[in-house]
Write a structure and sequence with these properties.
This protein has 15 helices and six strands. The chain is of the alpha/beta class. α6 crosses α9 and α10 packs antiparallel against α15.
Length: 346
C-alpha cells in the first residue's frame, strides 16, 4: 500500500498555534490531539493515522492506554524505542477524565517526545479536565496537530457528512437519494455512516433513490417525513393513511412528531425572506435545496396557519412524551391541524 502524499496543514484558528487537520485526511505527528464529541469522526481519524503509519512501516507497534485508569510510567514505557526500533503508535482514551498521574507525565512527555513514536490523545470535550494539557499541546509544545470532531447536529451537517462518505469512496449518489438516506438516519450518525458504507460496498454503479428506498424504506424516520410531507402539502386523506401505516408498522409517535416539527421549524425560518436561496442557506446554516424545499412547502400557508401548526406541534410533542395518555390521538390531531390548516374540530 502506497502512503498518501503529505498535504499542507489547513489554516489554524486563532485559539490554536498548531496545524488543524480533517478527520478524513489525518496525518501523523509526534502528538495528535483528537478533540470533540463526535465519536465516529474520532474513530475514523485514529484509524486513518494507524493505517498511514502501517503503510509506511508494517512493523508498527500499536498500544492503547486509558488516561483515567493510568499506571504511572506507562506512557514513557510504550513510547520508548524497542530493541529493533519499530515505530510506535500509542492511542490514549479518556483524556477528559485523566488522572493526576497521567496529566503530570503527559505534560512532561511534551517537553521531549520520543523519536519514532506517535501519541494520539482523545479528548471528547465532555469536561474541562485535562485543559492544562490541551492548552500546552495547542501552544505548540510537543510538535502536535489537532483533529477537531465537533458534534454533527444540523441537517446540513449530516448531509455534508454523508456526501463526504460517497465522495471519499468515489461513488456517485443522486441528490434525492442522498436526501432520503440522511432523512432515514436523523438521530444516529454512526448508523448513517454504516448505511453509507453498506451502499458503497453493496451497490455497483450509481446509487438512486429507489435503491435507498429498497434498503432503508422501512426506517421510522423515512415514514415520519412521508407523513409530514403529505400533511404539510394539505393532502389530509393521504396524510392519515401514511400515519396509520406508520403506526401499524411500529413507528413511535415521538419521532413522528419530531419529524413534523422539524419541517415546520424550517418553514418558519425561511418564511418571509426574499434572499437568494444560496445566501439564505449560508446565513441559516442550511443547504440550498433545504431552502428551496421549504419555500415549496410554504405554498398555501400564511403567518396565521403556520403559527397555529407550530403551536399544535409543541402541544403534540409534550403529549407524546407523557403529558397525555393517548399519544396516537395526539399525533392524529396534529396531522389534522396541519393538513386542514385550521384548529382541530373546526
Amino acid at each position: 500500500m502506497t502512503p498518501a502524499p503529505r498535504r499542507s496543514a489547513s489554516r489554524t484558528p486563532a485559539r490554536s498555534a498548531i496545524p488543524q487537520q480533517s478527520w478524513r485526511a489525518p496525518q501523523p505527528a509526534p502528538i495528535v490531539l483528537v478533540s470533540g464529541p463526535e465519536e465516529i469522526c474520532a474513530e475514523r481519524a485514529t484509524a486513518g493515522i494507524r493505517d498511514y503509519l502501517r503503510a509506511e512501516d508494517e512493523s508498527l507497534e500499536v498500544s492503547d492506554l486509558r488516561a483515567d485508569d493510568y499506571a504511572p510510567g506507562s506512557l514513557l514505557g510504550l513510547t520508548s524505542p524497542s530493541l529493533f526500533g519499530e515505530p510506535r503508535l500509542v492511542r490514549v482514551g479518556g483524556v477528559e477524565k485523566c488522572s493526576d498521574a497521567f496529566l503530570t507525565e503527559a505534560l512532561a512527555y511534551l517537553e521531549s517526545p520520543q523519536e519514532g513514536a506517535t501519541v494520539v490523545l482523545r479528548h471528547t470535550g465532555a469536561s474541562v479536565r485535562g485543559k492544562k494539557l490541551l492548552d500546552a499541546i495547542r501552544s505548540g509544545l510537543g510538535g502536535g496537530v489537532e483533529i477537531a470532531c465537533p458534534a454533527v447536529k444540523r441537517d446540513s451537517d449530516r448531509f455534508d457528512f454523508a456526501a463526504g462518505e460517497f465522495q471519499a469512496a468515489g461513488k456517485r449518489i443522486a441528490p434525492a437519494a442522498l436526501r432520503s438516506l440522511v432523512g432515514a438516519f436523523t438521530d444516529d450518525l454512526t448508523e448513517l455512516a454504516a448505511a453509507c458504507q453498506q451502499l458503497i460496498s453493496d451497490v455497483a454503479g450509481d446509487i438512486g433513490e429507489q435503491t435507498v428506498e429498497r434498503y432503508y424504506g422501512g426506517r421510522v424516520e423515512t415514514t415520519a417525513f412521508t407523513v409530514a410531507d403529505t400533511a404539510i402539502a394539505g393532502r389530509y386523506g393521504d396524510a392519515l393513511v401514511a400515519l396509520r401505516h406508520a403506526l401499524t408498522s411500529g413507528a413511535d409517535p415521538v419521532p413522528l412528531v419530531a419529524a413534523i416539527a422539524s419541517k415546520l421549524r424550517t418553514m418558519a425560518r425561511v418564511a418571509g425572506s426574499r434572499e437568494p436561496a444560496a445566501a439564505l442557506a449560508a446565513r441559516l446554516g442550511m443547504k440550498d435545496w433545504q431552502v428551496d424545499r421549504a419555500r415549496r412547502d410554504l405554498s398555501g400557508w400564511n403567518e396565521a396557519s403556520l403559527g397555529l401548526a407550530i403551536q399544535a406541534a409543541a402541544r403534540a410533542d409534550a403529549e407524546v412524551k407523557g403529558a397525555s395518555r393517548d399519544a396516537v390521538f395526539a399525533v392524529e390531531r396534529l396531522v389534522t391541524v396541519i393538513a386542514t390548516r385550521a384548529p382541530y374540530g373546526s
